[in-house]
Amino acid sequence: MIFRKVVTLVLFSLLLMNMQCDEDDVAILPCGSEIIIDSATYNEVESHAIESAAINDNCLDINIYDSGCDSDSWVMTLVDSGAIAESMPPQRYLKLSLFNDEACLAVFNKEGSFNLLPLRVEGANEVLLHIEGLTEPILYTFN
After folding, report:
1. How far apart are CA 41 and CA 47, in angstroms?
2. What's the rounded Cα separation, in Å, for the pair 63 and 124?
3. Contact in structure between 45 and 126 (CB atoms under 8 Å)
4. What is the pLDDT of residues 91-131, one digit of tens each?
5. Global pTM?
6. Residues with Cβ < 8 Å from 97, sequence gap 6 or more?
7. CA dihedral sign of residues 124, 128, 130, 134
8. How do residues 61-81 score in pLDDT, each as one tens digit?
9. SS3 for the chain, per residue?
10. From CA 113, how far away is CA 56, in angstroms rounded?
11. Fewer CB within 10 A of the end CB, N or C, for the chain?
12. What is the spatial distance between Cα 106 and Cα 111, in angstroms, rounded to a whole number?
């Protein structure tokens, strides 16, 4: 009787160890929001002022300030014109749009992160990003 319980416990333990995930099974999720690539949308949206922007791996982290009650309901959208200037490095043009329908006078900041992978240009390993509202373009380098 005891032997049967020990065997059952050992088999159950082996079954549990077999269900552990390997490091190869873990998916690496891209950062942040997707960038909209559409010339009509680019022409329609108003650009919002950007406090700072930095590239972290394949992510573009943007920090903004605006008035409101809190920044939780704000929706930041990064829109690419779809046009690629054929130069070395290639150049892309973007606008940051902010949806904020709050009517409070307090000022809050918010950081948004955007996945830069769709902005890569075939045959190049870097792209110069001209983001409306920033005085200097940002160089996105990739392998």
Report:
1. 11
2. 28
3. no
4. 999 999 999 988 888 999 999 999 999 999 999 999 999 99
5. 0.76
6. 45, 46, 47, 48, 76, 77, 78, 79
7. positive
8. 999 999 988 888 899 999 999
9. CHHHHHHHHHHHHHHHHHCCCCHHHCCCCCCCECCEECHHHHHHCCCCCCCEEEEECCEEEEEEEEECCCCCCCEEEEEEEEEEECCCCCEEEEEEEEECCCCCCCEEEEEEEEECHHHCCCCCCEEEEEECCCCCCEEEECC
10. 9
11. C
12. 17
The identity of residue 42, as a single letter, is Y
The owner of tokens 């490095």 is 89
